[in-house]
Automatic annotation (TrEMBL):
<keyword id="KW-0812">Transmembrane</keyword>
<dbReference type="Pfam" id="PF11157">
    <property type="entry name" value="DUF2937"/>
</dbReference>
<dbReference type="InterPro" id="IPR022584">
    <property type="entry name" value="DUF2937"/>
</dbReference>
<feature type="transmembrane region" description="Helical">
    <location>
        <begin position="135"/>
        <end position="155"/>
    </location>
</feature>
<keyword id="KW-0472">Membrane</keyword>
<protein>
    <submittedName>
        <fullName>DUF2937 family protein</fullName>
    </submittedName>
</protein>
<keyword id="KW-1133">Transmembrane helix</keyword>
Length: 170
């Protein structure tokens, strides 16, 4: 029975692990789209600032220096857009031209919950039949199997301890 449970955990972990390459591929497509949209907004902002003979920093200072709460919030929103753009472009750079291990590390390091949630909403699970999918399937299976084995060992600890007490007490 225990062997069957471990096999089921391995198979489930393998299926979940195999999703990583496909999910990250769709995530990268969304990442590219988000960067392009932010770039458009930033270019428009910079162009509008330049038409007023202002640098980006000067334009943001104008927002901050006003007494109008709406304009202050618009300035704060633009600063957040600049920060998000920088974060996403760093994320994109970490994922582009990276090997499998570097992609996994970059995905975790720069993980963006908003993009991941949007990707997951449109994601269709599949099992890729290539080396990368096989590698992540095996990795997921091993992690799930080790989790099951560790949980089994922890769950049995009280039983082992109780047996030792009975044997030594007799």
């Amino acid at each position: 029975m225990r062997g069957l449970i471990f096999i089921m955990f391995f198979a489930l972990g393998g299926f979940v692990g195999a999703q990583f390459p496909g999910f990250t591929s769709q995530y990268e497509q969304r990442l590219d789209g988000a960067i392009e949209e932010l770039r458009t907004i930033i270019e428009r902002f910079d162009r509008d600032a330049a038409e007023q003979d202002l640098t980006r920093a000067e334009a943001l200072d104008k927002y901050a220096g006003t007494n109008d709460e709406f304009l202050i919030r618009q300035g704060t929103s633009m600063q957040q857009i600049f920060a998000r753009y920088e974060k996403l472009t760093n994320h994109q750079a970490a994922l582009q031209n990276a090997n499998i291990a570097e992609q996994a590390i970059g995905f975790v390091q720069y993980f963006d919950p908003e993009l991941a949630q949007a990707t997951w909403a449109q994601y269709d699970p599949n099992v890729p039949l290539n080396a990368e999918g096989g590698l992540f399937a095996a990795l997921g299976g091993v992690i799930a199997w080790l989790t099951a084995a560790g949980s089994w060992a922890i769950a049995r600890l009280p039983l082992r301890y109780r047996r030792r007490i009975r044997i030594s007490g007799e």
